[in-house]
Amino acid sequence: MTGSLSVTAFRADLPAVLARFRAGKTRAFSFGDGVPEAVVLTYDEFEDLGGEGKFAAAEEVLEPELLADRLAELMRAIRAGQGVPVVWGVAGEPEAVVLSTADYRKLRGDDEPPPGVVDDPTRRTYVTEPLPDSRAMTMDEIAAVMGPEAVEELARLRREDREAP
Predict the structure, then answer these.
(1) 73 with 65: CB under 8 angstroms?
(2) Which of 58, 73, 127, 135 qualifies as a FRET site for 98, CA 20 to 30 Å off?
(3) d(Cα 124, Cα 113) in Å, to the nearest integer?
(4) pLDDT digits (tens, 9 = 90+) for 87-125
(5) Are 83 and 77 in contact (CB under 8 A)?
(6) Strand, helix or coil at 59?
(7) Mean pLDDT, the chain, whole residue set
(8) What element of type H or E holds 141?
(9) Tell me, what DSSP letter sits at residue 37?
(10) CA-to-CA distance for 41 and 27, rounded, in angstroms?
(11) Strand, helix or coil at 15?
C-alpha cells in the first residue's frame, strides 16, 4: 500500500488491511484527512521497536468493527495531541496498531520535522552518503571495536588461511 489513505478509506478497509499484513504484502503506512495524521503498523513491528515499553497502549485488543466505530474519536484525540496507540486484531489477537505520526516517529527514534512541514514518517528517506571525514576501516579495526573475542577469532582465521594448502 502506498500513499496516504483518507480516514474514511482506511475505516472501510480494516479487514483487508489485516489480510495484507498477515500475507506480508504491506508495511506500515499513514492515513489522514489531507495529510498524514496516523500510522498503522503490525503489532510485531510495534513490539520489535519496543512500543510496549515506550507507550501506555490500551490493554484491550479492538476488533476491526469496534475500531471502525471508535475511529472518529481516535482521530479527534490524535489531532489534539492526546491519542494513545490502539491495538487491534481479530479474536483478541493483537495484529496491528494505530498511532499518531508523532508517536510513530518516537517509536522509531526519528526526529520531528521542522514546524509547518508535512511529513509522512512511513515514507521518510535518509542521506546515505559518507560524511566528509569518513574513511574505510580495516578488518583489524573492526575486530578491535567488536572486542577481544573478535580479535582472537580474526587471528585464528588468518592462521587457518596461512596453514591451508
Answers:
(1) no
(2) 127
(3) 10
(4) 999 999 999 999 999 999 999 988 888 888 888 888 877
(5) yes
(6) coil
(7) 90
(8) helix 139-146
(9) -
(10) 7
(11) helix
